[in-house]
Task: structure prediction
Amino acid sequence: MSFQNPVFIPGPTNIPEAIRKEVSMPTIDHRSALFGDILHPARDGVRKILKSREAEVFIFPSTGTGGWETAITNTLSPGDKVLVGRNGMFSHRWIDMCQRHGLEVQVIDAPWGAGLPSEGYAEALAADTGHAIKAVLATHNETATGVRSDIAAIRRALDAAGHPALLLVDGVSSIASMDFRMDEWGVDIAVAGSQKGFMLPAGLAITGFSPKAMAAVETAKLPRTFFDIRDMARSYGSGGYPYTPAVGLMAGLKLACDMLLEEGLETVFARHYRIAEGVRSATRAWGLELCAQSPDLYSDTVSAIRTPAGFDATRIVTHAADKYGVAFGVGLGEVAGKVFRIGHLGSMTDVMALSGIATAEMVMADLGLDVTLGSGVAAAQDYYRSHDLSESKAAA
Result:
């Protein structure tokens, strides 16, 4: 692998030079006022990126998985029932975590490549007249399959049933790259990580709690210590942490939020849509299909590309790394060996995307797939040349 090439995995993503330097800051006393000058602006920036006016933001030294654990342990009790949709590897892993925590899990299964079935949520919630379901869990962007689900539709299902369950959403591979509307969609807990749209190294679990979720914290009885937001909230009041924070990453998060907000969220979303459309144009030119079943499900942060039946897609990822020093994502779970993934999120441009598309073409040609060199690159170039950012803003 070459450090000179951008990565095309769906996280960790490429790090802008300014953020890399910010993360490499000198050591400071994290109990001094200096840390508060990093902490509070970083939390305010995250709140704006979540499109929330009232969310309480909690940032832990962890990953998106730690964010999942933060969400369930702070709001639920042993034996509580949760309703979860499963349509890929990451939704499956959240289900596994709930089961390990002693929760009763009702699973709504959907094919890998489909979105979360809002109608299935609606039926389950309408049938739960006793309100045994305490939380509804949904993955906004399934990173394994490149599928975006309709979180607003799941909120409508909750509202139509008059159901009081909390809505917990994994936005790890969507937040800060694709439109996420915490307040408008009635999301009670949003979960993100530092290593994707925020363009940082892995190491921070980023969560937003609604007032309703904050109220649930006081009655929740699942064990939590490291991820207890009550300890975190008390420490935030004095500009500190209940334990040692990842100061450099927090400084990087503050700068990342500043950069995203300066670019403008709608421009950020449009940029991701535009880059993704180039990759999708290339995929069609290769005669291949996406794992996502229909255009309304296409993710703007990762494309999972199906290879012909009988061909091991993992060979593409291995060959790209070994011969060209470029990283693509392997297929996971039910689509392992059937897809390879091109991540196009975070610090990414049209020009960077074209280099990834060109590399994928060379790899597939090397491995004997019926792909014409230059076909995908030309298709993406045609799209980028003929569509400007304002058109992408309208479509994103």
